Amino acid sequence: MPQVLTAGRPWRVILLFAVPLLVGNVVQQLYQVADAVVVGRVLAVEALAAVGATGSFLFLLIGFAWGMTTGFAIPTAQAVGAGDARAVRRSVAAGTVLTAAVSLLLTVAAPLLAAPALRLLHTPEELVPQATTFAVVSFLGAGATMAFNLLSAVLRALGDSRTPLVYLVVSCALNIVLVVVAVPVLGMGVGGAALATVVAQGASVALCLRHVRRHVPALHVRREDWRLTRGELALHLRLGLPMGFQASIIAIGFLAVQVRLNELGPDAVAAWTTGMRVDNLAVALLASLGLAVSMFVAQNHGAGRPDRVRAGTQQALVLGVVGSLVIGLVVVLGGAPLVRLFVGSGEETVVGMAAFLLAVNGACYVVLGALFVLRGALQGLGHTVVPTVTGVLELGCRVGAAVVLGGAFGYPGVVWGNPLAWLAAFVLLVPATVHALRGTTAGTTAGAAISTSTSTSASIPTSIPTSTAPSEPPVAVHGEPTSADVTPEAVAAEVAVLPEQRDHDEVSPTRACA
């Protein structure tokens, strides 16, 4: 069930809510870490550089697809809130059809584009064969990746965030085992590393489908639910496409970085790839806090609690600054030893370059931590323009650093692109967030639909297509109340807490927005 964040000390509620998000983010990063460690230590630095050369290209297409599947689940959540069991099933059917279509397109077209795209990105010719192999295998398994993302999003739309996390952990563990078997034991090279991830994700899809079939009857799509209207498909596309494009904005910035790195040679590519593996794990900690803030602000804004919105944002800023200082210190001091986990002996040039990246980024994490909190607060308030503009601003800074600073100073100039992007976004977010928080007033309607994410947000439609047929009795899920019972009044009753459990200065909210 969705966690209600309108009661309790704000900093404690936010921190507890961020923990499972953190686990999920870290587990997702472990996919890439497992591949990098095995490939770098078993196949040498050139193979690691080849895998790294595919990163931005893969992220551009698969990241776009991931954003779309997340958007496809929004109408599902709306149907659950409306208590319309048939609309839930039809939304799942629409998302499945569109996901299958995009998966087919990626599976057929992307492998054919892999080698030309890598050369267009100025990938060093000695890396192209292995990089093409890794990209082709990954794209051939895009269907498994998209299916798991859609299933996870739909389960979360029903209020179940634990099941996707469980199967994500299973998938990661299986991926680690398979990559160890495929690369050093079977000698399958970088293609084996990509295949291990595809098989692990396919297994997680099978487990998720088994779970849905046995325990989630609300998602059992019937034959008539597949007869979708053009309007239903259009609604899902209107939500999915913008979220996909938002993910692509980030990828485009890293494509520019990748081009410059490719021109600087295999050592630069390998150093960046290795350093970013460590950096991504550190950033995942801060990103989890930002997502928790967005959900906290959304619920309290919907409940008409501007006092908690402001207090939560301020206290989260303290958590973000303290946490980023600690994480930054670990990354700066432990950069070189952490990098050596990924590469074999005799690669001191790569180690030094990667450690430099971690030192620069780690020293600037305090800006990034505050950035995540401020952007999360704006998204929770339903503000979409400024978060989107900051994403474009970050894109411009990364491209500028890659082209201008990279051309003038080489690898060090490219490295400074991330901190400059964070600083530019932070400068814009500070006055925007202060203005937004001052504008919050009590009495906000809890039924306002707000969609939040780690980078941008979009408004959820106030209605979804529903059938004119007689309504069906909703189906209970996991023994919880049926979707028809999930009304604002029922939520308020469900999350009510005893007076002595509240802070002495809090007024009990009458409604909660999940």
Please characterize this protein's 3D structure.
With 514 residues, this protein is mainly alpha-helical. Helix content is 75%, strand content 0%. It contains 19 helices and no strands. The chain has helices at residues 10-42, 45-53, 55-72, 74-82, 85-120, 128-140, 142-157, 162-185, 189-215, 230-264, 266-302, 306-333, 335-340, 348-363, 365-380, 385-409, 411-415, 417-439, 488-494. α2 crosses α11 (266-302), α4 (74-82) packs parallel to α7 and α16 runs antiparallel to α18 (417-439). The termini are close together. The relative contact order is 0.14. The model is unreliable at 442-514 (pLDDT under 50). Residues 448-470 have a biased composition (Low complexity).
Secondary-structure map with pairings?
Layout: H1 10-42, H2 45-53, H3 55-72, H4 74-82, H5 85-120, H6 128-140, H7 142-157, H8 162-185, H9 189-215, H10 230-264, H11 266-302, H12 306-333, H13 335-340, H14 348-363, H15 365-380, H16 385-409, H17 411-415, H18 417-439, H19 488-494
Helix pairs in contact: 1-2, 1-8, 1-9, 1-11, 1-12, 2-6, 2-11, 3-5, 3-7, 3-10, 4-5, 4-7, 5-6, 5-7, 5-10, 6-9, 7-8, 7-9, 8-9, 10-11, 10-16, 11-12, 11-14, 11-15, 12-14, 12-15, 15-18, 16-18
pLDDT under 50 segments (min length 5)? Answer: 442-514
Estimated helix fraction: over 70%
SSE order: HHHHHHHHHHHHHHHHHHH
Number of helices: 19
What is the overall shape? Answer: globular
Largest sheet, in brief, is:
none
What is the CA-atom radius of gyration, in angstroms? Answer: 23 Å
Overall strand count: 0
> What is the total domain count?
2
**Structural class, from secondary structure content?**
mainly alpha
Strand content: under 5%
N-to-C span: 10 Å
**Overall mean pLDDT score?**
75
